[in-house]
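Late entry, evening session. Most of the bench is empty. Finally got around to the prediction I had been postponing all week. Sequence below, unchanged from the version circulated by S.P.
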Amino acid sequence: MDSIKLMMEEHQYILRMLTVVRKACLLIMKGQAIDYNDFEQMIDFIRNYSDVHHHGKEEKLLFNEMVEHLGNLGSKMVNQGMLVEHDMGRLYIQELVSSLERTKQGDDESRIDVIANAISYTHHMVRHINKEDQVIYTFAMKQLPEEILNKVNQDTLIFENTANEKGVQKRYISLLEDLEKKYLN
């Protein structure tokens, strides 16, 4: 298993969900009612597929090896770059959830916050994914020793086997496709 190739493939699913989120926000901006169920599904995908599943592999497997084996530069890239950006994404989603709840409770002005946090998250993640694909992963592939990359690949295989037993990929790709049918057609 090529763990970095897999993570880059997962980025494509995440980018597709970001497009769905953006289209849902456009409908809100045009005055349509918020579909809270759809937003719950989008947030489920973001929290469980993008964050727990995808970022979990990055943080627990690849990034740990980069910190351990790539010295000060690897540590800075991960600890002061990627992990900070992961936390920023989590903050946007936490604020999105709060905004949705306020709107659901009748605070019409919080519709602005729903859009602001959702769109800020999409912009943040597009930049973040581009940085990982173009810089972080490339750096890791060139600088990590082959035996460490093989260890990351083996650990990723174990991680994925556990996730597949739970149906993670199948469930969230299906959820994504259903939302795409609704928002992108």
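Two things to note before I forget:
Residues 36-69 form the longest helix (34 residues).
The chain has one domain: 3-183.
Will write this up properly tomorrow.
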